[in-house]
Design goal:
Length: 263
């Protein structure tokens, strides 16, 4: 809602998009709330419905479905608090610098410098009652436990607000990740000799990006997968499975990805 208000105030041509995941009773009624606010502000509106079945990784699957209908050029309402939480989420799953860079600033995240409390104040000043998604307090989701339990505890231990600190750390990781990625882009990821001679961090990123090409997997290959491929690079093995019915093989110093038959 705050993003909608600020985008209109900035003179943008705005379309507010409501995505109904159909995960709770009455969710379709929220679209009407968004439509009324958009109309009041002079913005266009459209409603989308996606199907997300209950089950594992519900939050990630809902996000993927939502982004698919929003499109890659949609502006999202993430705040500085969201960025800090995402850094911790990614840290817990063992992410490298790219993941610890968290949500990146840019046109897709135009209000990333604002705190969540500031977006709430925007709505208050405009007389808008934002809808509070009840799933945002469900302890089933890791992010909610970080938001409501871990971050307050860490702030208490540190004796200060940690969100600005975590956001600055995300900027540091962004710089590191971007530098290593630029170095890795100069490597031929199929050339085992070039990979052996490159700094380990650069070789790992080159392989990670190569293995991600042509896949829909949101997360990069894990460290164990990259290390198995490095064993092939070093000549310790001639092939290894990399998931998704694919394997990496080495012939005459060159790596190649081979699709394996499904079991």
């Amino acid at each position: 809602m705050a993003l909608l208000v600020l985008a209109v105030a900035a003179g943008c041509e705005v379309t507010a998009v409501h995505v109904d995941h159909g995960l709770r009773p009455g969710s379709e009624s929220e679209a009407e709330h968004v439509r009324v606010v958009a109309e009041r502000l002079g913005a266009a509106f459209r409603s989308e419905t996606v199907v997300v079945e209950p089950g594992p990784n519900l939050e990630a699957r809902a996000r993927t479905a939502r982004h698919a209908v929003l499109g890659s050029d949609a502006a999202l309402g993430h705040t500085a608090d969201d960025r800090a939480e995402t850094l911790i989420v990614n840290l817990l799953r063992g992410a490298g610098p790219d993941g610890l860079a968290s949500i990146r600033p840019g046109v897709r995240h135009p209000i990333l410098v604002l705190r969540r409390s500031e977006t709430e104040r925007v709505c208050e000043l405009e007389g808008i009652e934002p809808f509070i998604d009840p799933s945002n307090v469900d302890p089933m989701f890791v992010r909610n436990r970080i938001r409501h339990e871990a971050l307050p505890l860490l702030a208490d231990i540190a004796g200060r607000d940690l969100v600005p600190i975590l956001d600055r750390q995300a900027d540091v990781f962004s710089s590191v990740a971007d530098f290593v990625k630029s170095e890795a882009a100069e490597l031929d990821p199929t050339d085992s000799r070039a990979l052996r001679e490159a700094p380990e961090a650069v070789a790992h990123v080159a392989l990670r990006e190569w293995l991600r090409e042509g896949t829909t997997e949101r997360h990069p290959p894990d460290a164990a997968t990259i290390e198995r491929v490095m064993a092939v690079v070093r000549g310790e093995s001639i092939a290894t499975d990399v998931g998704g019915n694919r394997r990496v093989e080495r012939t005459s110093g060159k790596l190649r990805i081979v699709t394996t038959p499904k079991a």
